[in-house]
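Give me structure tokens for this 259-residue protein.
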Amino acid sequence: MPVENEVRALARGLHILETLTCHSQGMSLSAIARTVGLAKSSTHRLLQTLVLNGYVKQDVHHNDNYFASLKLLTLSGNLIRHADLNALARPHLQFLAEITDETVHLVLLDRDAAVYVEKVESPNPIRMCSQIGSRAPLHCTGVGKAILAFLPEERQDVVLSESLPRYTDHTVTDPDELREDLRQIRARGYAIDNEEHEKYVRCIAAPLFAHTGQVVGALSIAAVSYRVDLSTLERWQPMLSERAQQLNAELMHFLDRYI
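Here you go.
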């Protein structure tokens, strides 16, 4: 097989895999082919390769149903474990969580979203429902806006030119209004999500940078709004920013991989 065909097949296989990760109940061959824009015969060949290598499973009761396997979780766990991310980051997250009694997140930028890679839960019975490995939009989350505000202007323009989904009544979807918010975030050095992504959830976030100065992630404190008002978030800001700077220095060798 020519190299260009191999590259094309790999890209299509990854597209199928990414599609399946968004459908926990699985998808039929026809649905997968339709979603990725391929013929059923080509889709079937790629699926069989993914099945053979353990990345996709076929439903034992319904052979036409395919779903992503847990091998992806194993790979992501290996990546985080071998990078010593948990060992380095967790003390800082635990410190903030113990002081505030709220949930603390560490995220890294992955293309057009922020991915949760570490988390310390609030001890309160009502708390965030975020999960490690889940993706947060850049335009309406604290961690997302903390990253987006420090991206190069041309990359900001790409994000703002795309559809900006509205999640709550507080979500900002007007590009010009969002640009002004990002300008203020960049000036003050931190972002606030005031129920913009989830109703009744507020968050404050500080960016993390690689050694080149490129933003690659963020550290945040999130809480339900009935328990924490905006003035409380602002009061936590110096502590959050200090911890973000310390964490930034300790994780620099890891963060550089995400440039």
